[in-house]
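Apologies for my clumsy wording, but could you write out the amino acids of a protein and the tokens describing how it folds?
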Amino acid sequence: MGRDMDRRAFLAAAGGLAATGIVSGTMAAAAEPPVGQKVKIVAVSCSPRPGKTTAAALKAALEAAAKAGANVETELIELAGLNIPVFDPAAADAPSDFAKVAAKLSDPAVGGIIVGTPVYFSNMSSLCKAFLDHCMALRKAKFALSGKVAGVLAVGGVRNGGQELTIAGVLAALMCQEMIVVGDGKPTAHSGATLVNTGDDISGDEFGLGTAVNLGRHVAEVALRLAGASRV
């Protein structure tokens, strides 16, 4: 009984604070970092085909992220054409282009990362898996991605083509990096952005593009809030 009363009292107090605008005002104050302090959102396209539908979907997400606040900067990294081989623990130090990508992702200015991948047989691309496996180096480097916001986008050949299964697999890997994982924001608000590629074109997928926009905005909003709160 006592615990129930305490809980009701807490909820009533919280409701009162929200009604007076104290809670919303505090959240708004923490939503933006100080003027001049940039928060970067980086999207990583794990499609082996440059400039195709995965990249296009990520661009839509980044455009939405940039509108979330004046302090937001964005960058798209395409892994297509880079030397990101299958991860071999016995040859982890072998020359590759991963170090260049890792340096960008681990930059303290990066507050959010969106990983995009095409769907192959209800799973991520082999390039995406290789990239995530190479991120073991970032985990070993004192969890260099810890505290950064992460979102995932998947592009499949049909509406129910394994996008959510793919997103779940990528999110699991990002959670192992101690990242703060989020889904696409309201009103769709699920595990991530799910798009349909019809003839190398996503422009007709209104719902899917909406999830990409919601994801980009949500990642940026959370990153901004965290950046602001960490500097209050």
The two ends are 38 Å apart (CA to CA). The first strand starts at residue 39 and ends at 45. Helices lie at 2-20, 22-31, 53-66, 98-105, 126-134, 136-140, 163-175, 206-229. The chain has two domains: 1-31, 34-229.
